[in-house]
């Protein structure tokens, strides 16, 4: 009976790096027989790659979209305008959608069962208010890594202890009071908003309010492997009644649905992939290519772009570099020697299906901004990384990759072409064996977690059982 089927509404923060993992989770829940309504903004839903194919393969997956109140040509970057739109436009539309879904479910010919719960992106804090108002159970999914979330949960204590804001500009000072981080944290490992001069700075307060809001959820869902983050998860467990670690989510989905996932590889993508990049990779030697991508949010100055470009060309290794159309501020001209070097052994592309590229036998390393999605994808693919952190959880991820797990190298914020060249040669040359040994160990741990008997596989089953125990009518 439809009434006995669980119905979950999933609402991601409206950026690609948040949409893709939550869509993976939606597919996993549908594969288990749950009904899922996935909510996007109109703007993002129009850009979503082939949602019809997903709905065809997962008959209980349905898409809804709501207005974000922004003009069509708005860039929709992670900034104040998007955050304001969440409160002023998206919040009331999402509230009305929840009420509409509930009313439809009560009719005799309802296409969907009654609503069981909401799974919201942790950044969509207004969803907690609506869930409490409408008396709907709510679970929180967090895109950033667990260590970042735990660090942000500790921010009020760091302020009370006088460690924040920083009294000076020495970034090497050790931070105490964040337990479970497998070694000391330093100021340079904390997110950029910790470098503000006042404790009441809006950016710092936003991070505090966002993380404290998570404690209102009935359960916390994290895209991580329990064994990788057990040290900090044991501390977080004292705050949260239920924590489900399901990472790497894309690998868990692949393990559940097998070869079908290859035909749906672009799911969650808002950017069109270059179809010719795989042909170029096919022409390269095994493990010879350094793949470069800074995700969907990071921007470069012209000076930074030139340093990276010279470092890549001068390294002597083949490279594939994702350069989004909006990645650089202002116009730029490319020196002739870079054009020649790129033509000889480089491939510049607007966007790619990253999972597919990282899995290609020609790719031997990943120069990354250290976003959590990219880091997990690199771990699953068994590739060492060069980390260039920029914002949010990138700094803690880069520290963990390079110092704790020892599966990559960390590039200083002030990127220098000689340093970039040296790091590429280290990562791709004869000395890579030591790093690769650590990568293989971490990669196996991640891949083992998503198969039957693994921690993420077991946690998914427990999450599904928990959702099925929630029966709700507004």
UniProtKB/TrEMBL annotation:
Q: Which SUPFAM superfamilies match?
A: UDP-Glycosyltransferase/glycogen phosphorylase (SSF53756)
Which family would the database say this protein is a member of?
Answer: Belongs to the UDP-glycosyltransferase family.
Keywords in alphabetical order, please: Glycosyltransferase, Transferase
Q: Report the top EC class in one word.
A: transferase
Entry's PROSITE patterns? Answer: UDPGT
Q: What is its EC number?
A: 2.4.1.-
One GO MF annotation is:
quercetin 7-O-glucosyltransferase activity
Which organism is this entry from?
Prunus avium (Cherry)
**Protein name, entry field:** Glycosyltransferase
Carries keyword Phosphoprotein? no
Q: Which CDD domains match?
A: GT1_Gtf-like
